[in-house]
Amino acid sequence: MATGKSTVNVQKAQLDVCIGKEGLPVGELAYVKDGAREYSVFAYGQDWLRHPSRFQVSPDLILAPGHQVRKPPTKDDSRFFLALADTEPDAWGRRVIARAHAKERKKVPTLRALTELDYLCAVDDFSRIGALRLRSDKGDFLRTVEQGMRATAPLLELERMFHASRAVERSRESAQDLRYLMGKGTSLGGMRPKCTVLNDDGTLALGKFPSVKDERSVTRGEVLALRLARQAGIETANARIVIVKGTPIAVISRFDRTTDHGRIAYLSAASLLQASRNEEHSYTEVVDAMRTVCVEAKADAQQLWRRLVFNHLITNVDDHLQNLGFLYVGNGLWRLAPAFDLNPFPDKDRESKTWLSEDTGPITSIETLIEKASYFHLAEPEALAVLVDVHGVVTGWRSLALSAEVGLTAKEVEEFAPAFEHSEMDRAKVLFSVNLRRSRV
């Protein structure tokens, strides 16, 4: 956990913010908790401001000397500048951290309550999302284990990690379970049990486990969605199913690392928009922001529209802006990150969580998507061609679902069917069929 100076009412801590595999210093982060008030202060280092590769590491951090203050707009927003907030543990990671701390407090009642900085610092340096890294005043990257060791487990240890996560879900975890899971949480993925693992080739991946609350094979469903998306022309994170003692675990490769373990800066769409967590935002706002920061803004906007069509046709309605991201490409420019966290929801209405635009509201129909296609740099014939591609792939979902690479049973396929076979698929077919006939007249 983070340490720092404290008085009866005020807690303070200071950390170095670094970037990349080399740990190049970027600036200093100060954290202050004064009663209910929590905020952070950041200042770029002069060496970073003079560095030829310098860039604005967070949309809310102007690339200029001097101290900049982050005060959360609401109690639900992060106390940290947004690119750092993207590296905070997600809901599952926070749950593990809080449980471990609660057990410690039983042993040591005088142990102080966790702060938001403690959560930020509890993520292992090796697996922290993106390129930003935190270093203590002793010069150590936070939660780095001893030289030559890594805190991220290999695939061979998935069984142990799965059982530890299940114990947490059932509130039966031991201190050993929690120690094993600590630091391996990630900012990607929400409340579902998961941990960071190493693929056999040493690359980082996310292991996503079934939950005790699951009523269907969610892990296989996610791998199915990601593989379908790739067939539909969508860049996705690599995903596969690993069976551990009969349990299907989704292993999804991380896209924020290079083959030589270099780190790629990452921003969520929410951070790009500098969005408060209590505000409604739209995909057209994302496109507006992409026009100013993306190296291939037109192509990325078209790719985004393809994803929206795919999400709608597979009933992926958990499309909040934390589930959309960008990777840094250099010279102050970004690109749309591969799609991740795609899940079919057969028991939910087809209404997107993020609005399409301020005037249309959530995505509820394929017609609305076609009407707004021009905002995503697609003329109607181009949009219909995309719709034909995506619709054709989704139509063949059953054969992929039953294949060895996904492994759903016939019964499980029927449980997922309402997510893929519905009236909007029919409406899409009518739309492009009518327009095809018109084009022939």
Describe the structure.
The protein is an alpha+beta fold. The chain has helices spanning 46-50, 82-85, 91-107, 116-121, 158-169, 175-181, 218-231, 269-272, 283-293, 297-314, 366-371, 380-395, 397-402, 410-420, 423-440; strands at 10-19, 24-34, 37-44, 67-70, 132-135, 153-154, 194-198, 204-208, 239-244, 247-253, 266-268, 325-330, 333-336, 355-357, 361-362. A 5-stranded antiparallel β-sheet has the order 4-3-2-1-5. A hairpin with a 5-residue loop joins strand 7 and strand 8 (204-208). The termini are far apart.
Which residue ranges are poorly predicted, with pLDDT under 50 across at least 5 consecutive positions? Answer: 1-6
Shape: globular
Strand content: 15-25%
Secondary structure class reads: alpha+beta
Query: Roughly how many Å apart are the termini?
Result: 70 Å
Average of per-residue pLDDT values:
91
In order across it, which strands form the biggest sheet?
4-3-2-1-5
Please write out the topology:
Elements: E1 10-19, E2 24-34, E3 37-44, H1 46-50, E4 67-70, H2 82-85, H3 91-107, H4 116-121, E5 132-135, E6 153-154, H5 158-169, H6 175-181, E7 194-198, E8 204-208, H7 218-231, E9 239-244, E10 247-253, E11 266-268, H8 269-272, H9 283-293, H10 297-314, E12 325-330, E13 333-336, E14 355-357, E15 361-362, H11 366-371, H12 380-395, H13 397-402, H14 410-420, H15 423-440
Parallel strand pairs: 6-7
Antiparallel strand pairs: 1-2, 1-5, 2-3, 3-4, 7-8, 8-10, 9-10, 11-12, 12-13, 14-15
Helix pairs in contact: 3-6, 5-6, 9-10, 10-12, 12-15
